[in-house]
């Protein structure tokens, strides 16, 4: 979390830095700040509590001139969101630092530095880096070497950029646990947490590896590995569209991204189902060989990505006949687990940078998983680089904190993975053809679902004065109920829970009254009669229900039950189809409640701290 941008240029860089921060705001938006070195070697800094817009406004009123600078948008960990805790942090008017991550030994370092006479102004862990660099510089011949000595003393995670007002020519950057990418310009160079920040100024990037420290000047970039040895990190041109960050005609990114789902899925399918057959190479070199040996799949993910993994478990066991476990990354990484023979470790992550998921992948390699696959939306991200195989979802940049198109394209990838593994476990050619057909029908089906938007908008009125909601589903719709509940709580701040409908009687039924709307996802499938019995249990206790169902499921509206007709679709893709109405419902409830849809309070999109 937290977004970092830095630049060394001849021109003034404050505008470039602020534009970069706007593009990184998905990483945190508690406060923002910028510092530049001016021609007189003075350090000038402006910070504001709140969003980057506040900082932008302040800089419009009082611009900062300088060709070397750093900037930061914060997601608070240590110390409340406030101007004093905002980055950059500055030591002795000379050293300025921005940091993403958590310095776990900050208390000990703070005491040590206080003993040396350093005065701390903030409650952040970051401020220790600032003073430590200043202190190390007293006995070092360069800022680079001071930073190299500093990072050796840090425990925890960092992506950090350091500058010294006495040296306009260089930025020193260091990475351990938090991503950093170098952007190469003409006579100017840049650093950022993510390429998105730098797309207006360059398309040429190289990624720092764990433990790297680099010196960035206008014409040179020198990178050193964890042992201080010079290394080359190959620079590559990217072809991402510069404008993928625009909202276009939509009021919010989340709505835009919800409507982009048919296209995102079309893009994710394109070239992968050739003449009705899945191209296994889409997972990477040697994929078929790896899939051939898979006897068990362990899925690891966080948040919305965890829900897509839950759906995949149903698919893998039912369609491919392969056993599958799924676990939240932050749990998996801290327990001793059994590794079944010939297991494939599958991580799912929109960003490819989620700290817990990355740590889980690294642990899995240590404890004996034979191979790994990531389902990811960001090329070049840490999970992609560190996994044996990768399925790249082609959702395009997802900006809204609440994930929409990344989730449904993950499901598409996971269904293709099910086919690829199933092929080696007796999945028939007919079944493969049926799944292919189902996937191909998906974009058009989703267009039909999006046409329900105005009736779902009307429905949202019923929820705006409620404090709680219960989502119910069975089978592969249970994870969809979970995802629906997560969306509602994330962006409307209504407390929402999801239950496998068969579990109702074991507790949640006690909560049912007219103040607890119950949302049911109910396509016609093998479990529909069971689900109907659960619906009756709610009705008998005076609950109010909102049932998303197709006409074949045969529900009818009455005083206590509103039925929202979802187009009939093939059962295999029903989890994807039923996701969209729930996304729209939470969106419209949030609109009525007036919450910040794209940047809900206390959250961030890319969680690079554990
Ligand atoms: C954050 C985001 C969620 C996302 C989760 C996992 O909590 O707000 O939308 O699902 O991280 O992120 P990942 O990038 O690993 O999918």
From TrEMBL:
Keyword Nucleotidyltransferase on entry: no
Keyword NADP: no
PROSITE patterns: GATASE_TYPE_2, SIS
Top EC class, one word: transferase
Reactions the enzyme catalyzes: D-fructose 6-phosphate + L-glutamine = D-glucosamine 6-phosphate + L-glutamate
Matches recorded under SUPFAM superfamilies: N-terminal nucleophile aminohydrolases (Ntn hydrolases), SIS domain
E.C. designation(s): 2.6.1.16
Source organism superkingdom: Bacteria
Gene Ontology MF terms in the entry: carbohydrate derivative binding; glutamine-fructose-6-phosphate transaminase (isomerizing) activity
SIS domain ranges (all copies): 287-427, 459-600
BP GO terms, sorted: amino sugar biosynthetic process; carbohydrate metabolic process; fructose 6-phosphate metabolic process; protein N-linked glycosylation; UDP-N-acetylglucosamine metabolic process
Its biological purpose: Catalyzes the first step in hexosamine metabolism, converting fructose-6P into glucosamine-6P using glutamine as a nitrogen source.
Full protein name: Glutamine--fructose-6-phosphate aminotransferase [isomerizing]
Source organism of the structure: Colwellia psychrerythraea (Vibrio psychroerythus)
């Amino acid at each position: 979390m937290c977004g970092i941008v830095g630049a060394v240029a001849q021109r003034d860089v404050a505008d470039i830095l602020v534009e970069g921060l706007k593009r990184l705001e998905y990483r945190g938006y508690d406060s923002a700040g910028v510092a530049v070195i001016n021609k007189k070697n003075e350090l000038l800094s402006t910070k504001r509590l709140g969003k980057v817009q506040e900082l932008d406004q302040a800089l419009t009123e009082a611009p900062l001139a300088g060709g070397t600078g750093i900037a930061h948008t914060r997601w608070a960990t240590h110390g409340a969101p406030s101007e004093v805790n905002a980055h950059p942090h500055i030591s002795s008017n000379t050293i300025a630092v921005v940091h993403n991550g958590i310095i776990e030994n900050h208390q000990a370092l703070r005491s040590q530095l206080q003993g040396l006479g350093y005065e701390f102004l903030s409650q952040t862990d970051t401020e220790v880096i600032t003073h430590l660099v200043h202190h190390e510089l007293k006995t070092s011949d360069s800022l680079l070497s001071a930073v190299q000595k500093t990072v050796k003393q840090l425990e925890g995670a960092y992506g950090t950029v350091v500058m010294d007002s006495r040296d306009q020519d260089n930025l020193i950057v260091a990475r351990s646990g938090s991503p950093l990418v170098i952007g190469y310009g003409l006579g100017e160079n840049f650093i950022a947490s993510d390429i998105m920040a730098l797309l207006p100024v360059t398309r040429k990037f190289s990624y720092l590896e764990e433990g790297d420290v680099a010196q960035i000047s206008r014409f040179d970039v020198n990178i050193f590995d964890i042992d201080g040895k010079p290394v080359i990190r190959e620079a590559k041109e990217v072809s991402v569209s510069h404008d993928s960050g625009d909202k276009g005609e939509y009021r919010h990114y989340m709505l835009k991204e919800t409507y982009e789902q048919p296209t995102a899925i079309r893009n994710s399918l394109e070239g992968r189902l050739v003449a009705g057959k899945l191209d296994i190479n889409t997972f990477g070199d040697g994929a078929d060989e790896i899939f051939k040996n898979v006897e068990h799949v362990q899925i690891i993910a966080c948040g919305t990505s965890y829900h897509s993994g839950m759906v995949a478990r149903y698919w893998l066991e039912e369609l491919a006949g392969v056993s599958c476990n799924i676990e939240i990354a932050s749990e998996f990484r801290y327990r001793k687990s059994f590794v079944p023979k010939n297991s494939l470790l599958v991580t799912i992550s929109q960003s490819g940078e989620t700290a817990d998921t990355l740590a889980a992948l690294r642990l899995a390699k240590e404890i004996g998983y034979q191979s790994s696959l990531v389902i990811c939306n960001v090329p070049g991200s840490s999970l992609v680089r560190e996994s044996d195989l990768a399925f790249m979802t082609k959702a395009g940049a997802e900006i809204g904190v609440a994930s929409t198109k990344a989730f449904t394209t993950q499901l598409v990838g996971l269904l293709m993975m099910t086919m690829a593994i199933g092929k080696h476990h007796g999945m028939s050619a007919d079944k493969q053809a049926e799944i292919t057909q189902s996937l191909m029908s998906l974009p058009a089906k989703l267009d039909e679902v999006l046409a329900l938007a105005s009736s779902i908008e009307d429905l949202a009125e019923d929820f705006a004065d409620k404090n709680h909601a219960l989502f119910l589903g069975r089978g592969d719709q249970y994870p969809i109920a979970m995802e629906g509940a997560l969306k509602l709580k994330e962006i409307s701040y209504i407390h929402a829970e999801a239950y496998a409908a068969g579990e109702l009687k074991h507790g949640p039924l006690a909560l049912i009254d007219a103040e607890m709307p119950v949302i049911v996802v109910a396509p016609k499938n093998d479990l529909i009669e069971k689900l109907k019995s659960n619906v009756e249990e709610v009705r008998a206790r005076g609950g109010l229900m909102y049932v998303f169902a197709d006409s074949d499921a045969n529900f009818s509206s009455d005083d206590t039950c509103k039925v929202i007709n979802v187009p009939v679709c093939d059962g295999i893709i029903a989890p994807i189809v039923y996701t969209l109405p729930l996304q729209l419902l939470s969106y419209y409830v949030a609109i009525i409640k007036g919450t910040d849809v794209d940047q809900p309070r206390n959250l961030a999109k890319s969680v690079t701290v554990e």
